[in-house]
Write a structure and sequence with these properties.
Length: 217
């Protein structure tokens, strides 16, 4: 089992490192271009590997349970960010609702675990991570009530927010692991940086969309 655990860790770290590089490529490349799309596709595939190996690490090898909530956070961000790019609508679909409910169950288990075994991680990290996940899930349920005529380009802003969120979650896990002596700053500062990126890219996309409308009219 120890050898299998080492293999699992190696695959997890390798997939995470490559995904971070591709995430940067997707961020700096032309949005909607070939490089952006390809980097995003491989990033999503690697995210699946990271999720699978992370869950193996928690449930099979009994390692770092906090990785569960980070894994669920990045998984849901990535899944929902990909799905909204595919559907481009807020029409309720079974798979989206099922994954959202499954994520809530996983987070509930995580909170129960910490209540039973003691909160040995920084409360700032725990509450902010769980809060970020629940906020996105609540929004995803609330958006079903937005009239389709008013939903418009919200799918694009959702895609930006969620994919940057998935990238930021991976970055936080990476820096928190590589720089353990600087916790909790090595864990939440990437999230602050990610939030600034989310705002900047959404504002940019909004202005680009409005400028095209002005030209067309």
């Amino acid at each position: 089992m120890e050898n299998l655990h080492l293999v699992n860790i190696s695959v997890h770290v390798a997939a995470g490192s490559i995904a971070l590089i591709l995430g940067v490529v997707a961020l700096i490349s032309k949005k909607g271009g070939r490089i952006h799309k390809k980097a995003g596709e491989i990033f999503t595939l690697l995210l699946s590997v990271i999720i699978l190996t992370g869950l193996f690490g928690v449930f099979v090898f009994g390692r770092n349970t906090f990785l569960l909530v980070i894994t669920v956070l990045s998984a849901y961000y990535g899944f929902s960010g990909y799905r909204i790019l595919v559907t481009k609508s807020n029409k309720p679909q079974f798979i989206d609702i099922f994954v959202a409910l499954l994520s809530i169950i996983a987070v509930s288990y995580f909170l129960y675990y910490f209540r039973q075994n003691g909160m040995y991680w920084s409360p700032v990290i725990i509450y902010s991570t769980v809060g970020a996940l629940l906020m996105v899930i609540l929004y995803d349920f609330a958006r079903y009530f937005i009239p389709s005529t008013q939903y418009g380009k919200l799918w694009l802003y959702e895609h930006i927010y969620k994919m940057i969120g998935a990238f930021t979650a991976l970055l936080s896990a990476f820096t928190g692991t590589v720089f353990p002596n600087y916790k909790p700053y090595s864990q939440f500062l990437p999230s602050v940086f990610g939030t600034l990126m989310q705002v900047a890219f959404i504002v940019y996309a909004y202005r680009q969309h409005n400028s095209r409308k002005i030209i067309l009219t």
